[in-house]
Specification:
This protein has helices at 31-35, 55-63, 69-79, 86-93, 124-133, 189-202, 244-248, 264-274, 278-295, 352-360, 364-386, 396-414, and strands at residues 3-9, 12-19, 25-29, 101-105, 157-162, 165-167, 177-180, 210-215, 218-224, 228-230, 236-238, 240-243, 306-310, 313-316. It has 416 residues and is of the alpha+beta class. The strands form 4 sheets. It has a 5-stranded antiparallel beta sheet. Strands 3-2-1-4 form a 4-stranded antiparallel beta sheet. Strand 13 (306-310) and strand 14 form a beta hairpin.
């Protein structure tokens, strides 16, 4: 038996995603979408064409919309579906995903959002209950009226704000923020991510805005979605985006370079081919590579970089999920994407940056200068950021501990 989902973008159907009795998916663009030259492809890896895309071609993009690893396992258990059944996940969760798309059963149309708004702000008790529920029911999967999905292996929940307070979205309503509770396995991850994201913004990197909050003494992060915008009436609208694995046709379970996932060379090649102003995107990606090494974000893989479609062009999306993973001994210190075949800070030497520059097609003197500039900016700013008013309410000792670790790494990078 064939089942079909219509793939919607801004009130129009881009095409259909079908699964047959053997569990094989196919995506086909609609004739109307292909005929409209102003309508872009849904992915750099899925150019507009009348022929269907087979499973191996379309799965990397659509599976890339779904939660991963333990989050995927927990959602499968909550919904009573196989953890390998991508189509069933999309049926259950595809109402609000990363980017502009939403997926609905064929024949259905996305709900019309009441301008008066059906969402209501959560009480503190309700928010605490959600924080308690997320570890065992990620994305509140199966809750009536919610069809929400985000990629990644960390617990999180798409939400909206009403008068500054967290709320669950009405059916079909675009979410505008991402709520991230602490990771139970590791201490003070909220402080860690808040510090690193705020530091990145302070030294000039484009990052998704982040705010540290707490309820009943429970810290969490609230990240503003960069793939949303607001129209003249103040209503949220979806912007399209795709991560580098989706754009390169790499399935999410191969997101790490060591598993044939994207390398820095592949990422730099992608932004040169895909973005509207490649020079700007290349420089921003270089900054991200250097910054992640400095702060010890070893988990910066191909799904942690994205392309953003806006205003008829494609740019490198603001950075997100920045965390000093080396602060946790249980996690590997090896970089998800090596820098000129070097996997750890200790392997970075005098020839590293010249080798890296050659690998990604940049001038060695420029790369070395940018390394020094960013390292010096981090040295000057990390402890200042740790004490900034925007982080008040978080654990001050943990913040300063992470800042001290980052400064020590920056000093080492500056001397490389």
């Amino acid at each position: 038996m064939t089942r079909t989902l219509s793939v919607w973008w801004d009130g129009a159907v881009t095409g259909t995603l079908k699964v047959n009795e053997h569990g094989e998916m196919r995506f086909t663009y609609s004739e109307e979408w292909i005929a409209d030259a102003d309508r872009p492809a849904i992915s750099f890896s899925l150019p507009k064409r009348p022929e269907p895309f087979k499973q191996r071609q379309c799965r990397p993009f659509f599976a890339g919309l779904l939660p991963e690893e333990s989050q995927r396992d927990a959602v499968a258990g909550a919904l009573g579906i196989s953890k390998r059944n991508d189509f069933a996940f999309l049926e259950a969760l595809g109402g609000d995903v990363a980017g502009a798309l939403s997926l609905w059963p064929e024949g259905d149309t996305p709900p019309i959002i009441d301008p008066a708004g059906e969402a209501r702000a959560l009480t503190d008790d309700e928010l605490v209950s959600i924080l308690d529920t997320l570890p065992t029911r990620p994305l509140l999967a199966g809750r009536e009226g919610l069809r929400l999905s985000l990629a990644g292996a960390q617990s999180k929940l798409p939400v909206v704000l009403i008068d500054g307070r967290v709320a669950l979205p009405a059916p079909g309503q675009p979410t505008t923020h991402i709520l991230k509770p602490p990771i139970a396995r590791f201490p003070h991850t909220t402080e860690n991510e808040a510090l690193v994201m705020t530091l990145a913004a302070a030294i000039g990197l484009p990052v998704a805005p982040v705010a540290a909050r707490s309820v009943a003494g429970r810290p969490y992060l609230l990240i503003t979605r960069y793939d949303r915008t607001f129209d003249e009436s103040g209503r949220a609208r979806r912007l399209h985006q795709e991560d580098f694995c989706q754009a390169l046709g790499v399935p999410p379970e191969r997101k790490y370079a060591a598993e044939d996932g994207p390398t820095f060379k592949a990422c730099f090649d992608l932004v040169r081919r895909a973005t509207t102003v490649p020079a700007r995107a290349v420089l921003a990606l270089l900054d991200a590579a250097i910054f992640n090494l400095i702060v010890g974000n070893a988990d910066a893989h191909g799904k942690n970089f994205s392309l953003l479609y806006q205003g008829g062009g494609i740019t490198l999306a603001p950075f997100y999920d920045l965390l000093s993973t080396v602060a946790y001994p249980d996690l590997s210190p090896k970089l998800a994407m090596k820098i000129a075949k070097r996997a750890t800070l200790e392997e970075i030497g005098q020839t590293t940056w010249a080798d890296f520059a050659g690998e990604v097609g940049l001038g060695a003197p420029f790369v070395r200068r940018r390394v020094r500039e960013l390292a010096e900016a981090v040295i000057a700013g990390a402890r200042v950021v740790a004490e900034s008013p925007s982080l008040i309410g978080l654990d001050a000792v943990a913040l300063m501990s992470y800042a001290t670790l980052i400064v020590s790494r920056a000093e080492r990078v500056a001397g490389s």
